[in-house]
Amino acid sequence: MLNRGLHQLRYELVSFVRDPAAIFFTVALPVLMFFFLVSIIGPATVDLRNGISAATYYLPFVLTLGVVASAFFNTAVQVTTLRELGVLKRLRSTPASPQGMVLAWFGTSLITSLLIVVALVLLARLAYGISIGAGKLPLVFLALVLASASFTALGFAITRLIPSEAAALPLANAVVLPLYLCSGLLIPTEEAPAWVQGIGEVFPIRNLAEILLGTIAPHKGGSVWVHLLVLLAWGIAGLVLATRFFRWTPAREQASAQ
Amino acid sequence: MTASERAGEPLIEIKDLCKSYGSVIAVDGLNLSVSEGEVFGLLGPNGAGKTTTFEILEGFRKRDAGSVRVLGVDPEKAETAWRAQIGVVFQTCGLQPRLTVEELLALYGGFYPTPRSIEETIRLTGLDEIRRRRAQRLSGGEQRRLDVALALIGNPRLLFLDEPTTGFDPSARRAAWEMIRGLSATGTTIVLSTHYMEEAQALCDRVGILSGGRLLAEGRPEELVTGDGVLTEVRFMLVEGEPKLASLPDLGIDTWQSLPGGARTHTRRPLPLVAALHEWALANAVEVRLLEVAPPSLEETYLSLTGEGSDAK
Lengths: 258, 313
Description:
The structure holds 2 protein chains of 2 kinds.
Chain A: H1 2-17, H2 20-41, E1 45-46, E2 52-53, H3 54-85, H4 87-92, H5 98-128, H6 137-158, H7 165-182, H8 194-202, H9 204-214, H10 224-245
Antiparallel strand pairs in A: 1-2
Helix pairs in contact in A: 1-5, 2-3, 2-5, 3-5, 3-6, 3-7, 3-9, 5-6, 6-9, 6-10, 9-10
Chain B: H1 3-7, E1 12-21, E2 24-34, E3 39-43, H2 50-57, E4 65-70, H3 80-83, E5 86-89, H4 101-109, H5 118-125, H6 140-152, E6 158-162, H7 170-185, E7 189-194, H8 197-203, E8 206-211, E9 214-219, H9 221-226, E10 232-238, E11 257-259, E12 262-267, H10 270-284, E13 288-294, H11 298-306
Parallel strand pairs in B: 3-7, 3-8, 5-6, 6-7
Antiparallel strand pairs in B: 1-2, 1-4, 8-9, 10-12, 10-13, 11-12
């Protein structure tokens, strides 16, 4: 199964590097966002966490954005596209294992997430002098692996709700954009109403951001393990839903009478 | 040795298969079997239930009733080892757009335990010149050949081809026929559907004619065209003038149809009709410049069975 997964991963990566739009949206966009967010706020500090700099505040949040973009967004959109093209149906007619396919997509998500992390961390270090302590790297890596797996599973799960290729991008955005806002990814939510913060805490995006923020800034409180557990729980839920409801054939073929 | 070989049962066995989509009946009590090594053709108009039948055999759709065994297994419960023995060409099915022909063959070949080599597959399907082209830049006919190549890469024992040559130009179709004959010669069992009667006649050991989800006829192509209820067409033209239809000999035929300068009819007994026609021409002093006795083709059989032909009744 692992071999099959690696075999498929290789060709997913080949497809990915030949897709300029996918590279832009998953890798370049977070880097640009980080640059502009920090430039707009400038040298002012974000007061909410004992006066940390804007760059320090936004680094983990834009990292989170990048992981969600590559693992959840990219998976949901690309898998829907492949389903509607009939590629998944063709795969289903071969001995390729579904688990191998999920592994391949997880691998793609993890590799693109790592690319984003490397690009952002280098930028933060060289341009803004922010560095993640070496001792924190294992935690960062663990969080990335867990988050990539969870968001990939959720990306697979949501394809069941996406009726067509054209609906993939708007629908994924409709899910993700409100959560970005409630999770403080774009505007800090420390002083937002409790329900906004509550939404952030329930969903996995804020939890990933908190883990990453804790590695470069004073932690707000609450154990890092709780955040990891929330990520894990969402991942399991995604996997169960994806396994139970996954659809291999194009939506238009579901009820057609031929 | 598989279960089907042990029991000596056919490779495909369908009994009383039924499938509906809501109130639309797609397959209505189908019985069919295909033996190892056969080329079996499923013919029928659009909506006859061909694709539904294929997809049930391939394990993509659940049936409502009846029993289905493919390679000794119920396709609804099929597992990886079963999928490794079948190759499928769907009617329409996409490809990863950014991978090349060679990459796709390597990707799909990697899923099978004993794949055919990429070189052999490329040679069989004539893809050599476009082996480094991405799928998104292939023409319709090239994509179709790649569809076939991907179905062959696993070296299948049983191959499903749902309208494999639709959209081919005549020379590409001939090439595809050669390929299918070659595969059949190596012992691959092939089940195909087609709209082209000459294709079925050229390739198939046996054909089944499907309409409204029912099997109207089944047998070797030459059996079907000489079977009961199949009519020979007799047609003639006069050197000048129109034949008086009422005066033409009647040998239990339907009626004569008027053609410009001639007439035609269909009969079960062409020879007595031609003899009577000869007498009629002598008696009426008319000169016949063209007399055609057209043997029934599979196409006419098909049209008369499916009720699609208006003049073949």
